[in-house]
Amino acid sequence: QVQLVESGGGLVQPGGSLRLSCAASGFSFDDYAIGWFRQAPGKEREGVSCIRSGDGNTYYTNSVKGRFTISRDNAKNTVYLQTDNLKPEDTAIYYCAAATECYYTDERFDYWGQGTQVTVSS
What we know:
By secondary structure, the chain is mainly β. It is 0% helix and 48% strand.
């Protein structure tokens, strides 16, 4: 059974940090790229970051470059998203998803987690 389980969300003040985790099971984790997406209330889901399998190349949407860092630990079948200098506009449900490549469209991602809420507010 394929599972992606996000954790690490919460309430944080502006300027604060959170480390999100995505624990995977039930598929060949080493062969998959893992992406992080987010969806704020009333907005479409957007891609935040992605890390490829193999070479481990990483990608970020412009609004999080320099503040978020994605990494993976293949021994633990886990991908992390370190979020620093958080802003209120980062408030959203954050999802991780698996695909064979870091595609631009979320439609190409095969497996999805249930999401973790990140709220940035003073």
